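Late entry, written up from scratch paper. The run itself happened at the end of the previous shift, but nothing got recorded in the book at the time, so transcribing now.
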Amino acid sequence: MDKFRWGIIGPGRIARKFATDLQVVPEAELYAIASRSGGQAFANKFDVPVVYDQYQALVADSAVDAVYIATPNILHADNIRLSLEAGKPVLVEKPFTVNAQEAAPLFELARQKGVFLMEAFWTRYLPVYQTVRTWLDSGAVGEVVVIHGNFCFAGKQDEQDRWLNPDLAGGTLLDIGIYPIAVYQWILQQNPVKVQASATIGETGVDTTFSVQMQYPGGAMAQFFTSFEINSKGDMSIYGTNGAIHINHGFHGATMATLAANGKETSINEGFRSGGFEYQIEEAVDCIRKGLIESPRMSHADSLANMQLMDAIRAQIGLKYPFEQRPG
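Output as recorded:
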């Protein structure tokens, strides 16, 4: 079977991780990149044979089997649409788009075109989470009652960087709050019915520290906080009627988890073959080769629900980006 050829739109920080981890996926390779600046340096580092300075040229290349989009949040919707219109399967970095209004028509376009579209939520595909899923489904902790987590890092205070820039849809919610939101949804297999959020809005107008409490059908509660102002271990704990699961030291990229139930603890350590992106890459390649238009493990409905929840949270904390306030 011929190698599956990836093209990258936007070779920045996150794309470097994708390119590195792609090297351990034997059935796939990085064939092309498109960038309006810095593309050649990226190509030299990762031995990419084809470099374009226009996104349109990449999606028009018949040798490209799928496109990985790693541009800033504000550009996701346009880049997805461009790729789908060209008939190219898409793996797009989280958050899928800036809001649900942008996201919904893109899922419909993917269905109309019969083209694969998936949000690159790599956490769901990590080996440790496959074991956590088994623990949950087997009833090892009973009914989930409370989930608690955090994801914080003292980011660089560059107002032009995407983390703090409102014109690039910055802030902790869209950048790192998406992780607990999507993982909680995956744990409970449902969406919250009640949300209470609060945030510190920084000088640039985006959330720099954020917390939320959510209630789910059946009564389960979930809490998390995120911040660009402090560092944390990034732990997550799932408490049930019969026990608990602890996912330690950066739950979003975890290799370790512990099940505490029936008076004993069971710990696992599931390392990566590379940096962790390789598992979502393999999922996307497998789905595309099977002719699917979405991954059953990160469905269109899942991604849309995430966007709708983040819209509701942003409404509560009063965060609206400048471009969302402009007519049209």
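Residues 300-317 form the longest helix (18 residues).
(Scratch paper discarded after transcription.)
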